[in-house]
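This is your field. Have a critical look at the following sequence-structure pair:

***
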Amino acid sequence: MKQSTILQKLTLEEKCALLSGKGEWETWNLPRAGVPSLICSDGPHGIRRQAGAGDHLGLNPSLPATCFPTAATVANSWDPELGEEIGQALGEEAAVQGVHIVLGPGLNIKRSPLCGRNFEYFSEDPYLSGKLAASYIRGIQSQGVYACPKHFAVNSQELRRMAMNAVVDERTLREIYLTGFEIAVREGHPGALMTSYN
């Protein structure tokens, strides 16, 4: 069924439900409209599918999975083929664990040493970040699982990240922060995209 047909069938309440989760890692299912529930998992460096009740801190036990080198480490290789191989392995493990969407790769730009997620991001260079993210996306999605690059965009700090105001001029936004995402989307064709809180 076409997406536009599905949207026409949904009530306002059902459309709103799709903007939030059914649980910590699961989207709402709407059987009447043929919309299945999808399972998401953190995944920039390994699948984190929780075995029992999901929690956003990852305190409850998770299914065993491979821990891959951080994006920062992989970026030092300057090797998109390696990124695609890692993506394929992430996608394969996700599929085996019943995960539909891998929440990754992370490709924000490293502009502040205070960003608590710099290890999750590839580089301070938007071109390198975009090329490697695109390779991860292609690898993940080659296994029938969606990739969800994150965090779009200007997610440069963890302190008060749900309340901070990212003030950036348009040139900086376009040339530094959005370029990597543009490359990743144009070349990787991700099935989803995660926004940031700012």
